[in-house]
Write a structure and sequence with these properties.
Elements: E1 3-4, H1 16-19, H2 21-31, E2 38-43, H3 50-64, E3 68-73, H4 78-91, H5 100-115, E4 123-127, H6 134-138, E5 144-149, H7 158-164, E6 173-176, E7 190-193, H8 210-219, E8 228-232, H9 241-252, E9 259-264, H10 273-284, E10 290-294, H11 301-310, E11 313-316, H12 325-332, E12 337-340, H13 345-348, E13 355-358, H14 361-373, H15 375-392, H16 395-411, E14 419-420, E15 427-428, E16 434-438, E17 441-445, H17 448-456, H18 463-466
Helix pairs in contact: 2-16, 4-5, 8-11, 9-14, 12-15
Length: 478
């Protein structure tokens, strides 16, 4: 049997202070028709990444709302997770095809996991490519199956994508972080755009006394009275940690006592991380101003919370990104961010909000130096970012979007007459937003920013015209 992950208990009422009492009441209303519905979330690891963090927060709240929600993980050895990491990178565009042996490893482990899947559920949500093939090998029974892709798959390695395509047959719906992430020739099914979100009352994000935060960082060797910039992320080449170190060295020529913290998490499904960790240690070259920490050396949610609160600047210099929740985490704590202009990061930080978007190491160094020299302006940018996070990227909004999806799939009825921005998934109220004509269809967007993103990438939205009727009314068509 697939391993069941233990989670704590939580009340949705605890979110009234951060999200608003009216949001909590809306969640209760959305959940009422779903009381008793059996929901399974299935992924590859119980720790070490954004998916696991979200599930650890979300499952207790689904239960509190009356759903019978479980979280299980698939099993696999190092060979399997090496292959799935290669698939992950291939979906993000890495130019390395899978060998016949690697395909066999993926298929054999998927079949084994399918054989261990014995429980019956009404809704099954499969996260990312690692467990994708379970439906193929297990069979659907009476459940509704959803594939939740957290990766930027807008320009995948086509050989890798072609290998995975047959395993999507039979899914009832797919969920992507951005509309532009839907890969080419995506199978005809319902497609929803649902960005991820942070949990404001989790240990990583709850309010932390400043004296405790200082003590936490002092305890692990950070000099809290000296300038500090931090990147929190997996040790992954797409996060460009070596570029972060290179830019730090540029800034340090202007700020000699600057410190850099690279805080990474090791996960069961990411054997590549150890190679990146070794490269980071080599690039740091015994610089006493560079601190490298992992979850395996005792740096967890509390320490990350302290880093994101006490750093002068949070960096997220990704060169490819699904969403980058650490951006919202930092902004929620009032810390300005310098981040790569990729994936879902611009959605969190439109121009003039939160900090600065950059494309090069030089820009990253320049903008970070500016924020170090203009702390009050940086705090003002971060406060605007915090308000954007409160409105769009808290866990309550994510759960509401998913409850609507469960309801629609189980009822089999057409979507309610509401318009969702096809870029970011945000609901567009009547009489608000902006619109454009795409072929014979008028499409509405929540903002000029999303309209511009659509116009730059409109060739990636073919899914809007090829899915089933059930999935079309949520794509922005007015």
């Amino acid at each position: 049997m697939l391993e069941l992950i233990d989670v704590g208990t939580q009340s949705i009422d605890a979110y009234a202070a951060s999200a608003g009492a009216e949001v909590v009441e809306e969640l209760r209303a959305l959940a009422e028709p779903l009381r008793g519905v059996r929901v399974l979330h299935l992924n590859a690891t119980p720790y070490g990444g954004g998916v696991a963090e979200i599930l650890r927060s979300k499952i207790p709240l689904l239960r509190d709302l009356g759903l019978a929600a479980d979280w299980r993980i698939i099993c696999g050895d190092e060979a399997f997770f090496t292959v799935t990491k290669k698939i992950h990178n291939g979906l993000q565009g890495a130019p390395y095809p899978l060998t016949p042996e690697e395909k066999e490893i993926y298929q054999a482990h998927s079949k084994h996991n399918a054989e261990q899947f014995e429980r019956h559920y009404d809704v099954i949500v499969v996260h990312d490519p690692q467990p994708l093939a379970l439906l193929h090998f297990h069979g659907r029974n009476s459940a509704r199956w959803i594939w939740r892709c957290h990766i930027d798959t807008s320009e995948p390695n086509l050989e890798v994508w072609e290998f995975l395509l047959p395993y999507l047959e039979g899914y009832d719906a797919a969920v992507f972080t951005l509309g532009s992430f839907v890969p080419p020739r995506f199978p005809a099914m319902r497609v929803d755009v649902i960005p991820p979100a942070i949990d404001p009352v989790s240990p990583k994000n709850l309010d932390l006394d400043p004296h405790l935060a200082r003590r936490v960082l002092e305890w692990i060797g950070v000099e809290v009275d000296k300038p500090l910039i931090t990147q929190v992320s997996r040790f992954d080449p797409w996060k460009d940690p070596l570029g972060v170190i290179e830019g730090y060295k540029m800034i340090k020529s202007e700020v000699p006592d600057l410190q850099l913290a690279l805080v990474g998490s090791m996960a069961l499904d990411d054997p590549e991380a150890w190679d990146i960790y070794r490269q980071i240690r080599e690039a740091a070259n015994a610089d006493p101003g560079i601190h490298v920490y992992t979850n395996l050396t005792g740096v967890g949610n509390l320490e990350v919370n302290a880093f994101q609160r006490l750093s002068d600047v949070i960096v997220q210099k990704s060169i490819r990104e699904g969403f980058g929740l650490v951006v919202s985490e930092a902004l929620w704590k009032g810390t300005p961010v310098v981040a790569g202009q990729v994936g879902g990061i611009p959605l969190q930080m439109p121009k003039g909000i939160g900090g600065f978007l950059v494309k090069t190491i030089e820009e990253y160094a320049e903008r970070t130096l500016w924020l170090l020299r203009h702390p009050e302006e940086g705090k003002a940018l971060a406060e605007l970012g915090r308000e954007r996070v409160r409105k769009r990227f808290l866990l309550t909004r994510l759960i509401a979007d998913e409850l609507r999806l469960y309801r629609d799939l189980l009822s089999g009825e057409p979507l309610a007459a509401e318009v969702c921005d096809p870029v970011c998934g945000h609901r567009v109220a009547p009489g608000t937003g902006v619109e454009t004509r795409h072929g014979d269809t008028v499409i509405r967007f929540c903002s000029e920013d999303c309209l511009r993103m659509f116009l730059r990438t409109h060739d990636r939205f073919e899914w809007m015209t090829q899915g089933p009727e059930m999935g079309k009314s949520g794509n922005g068509a007015a």
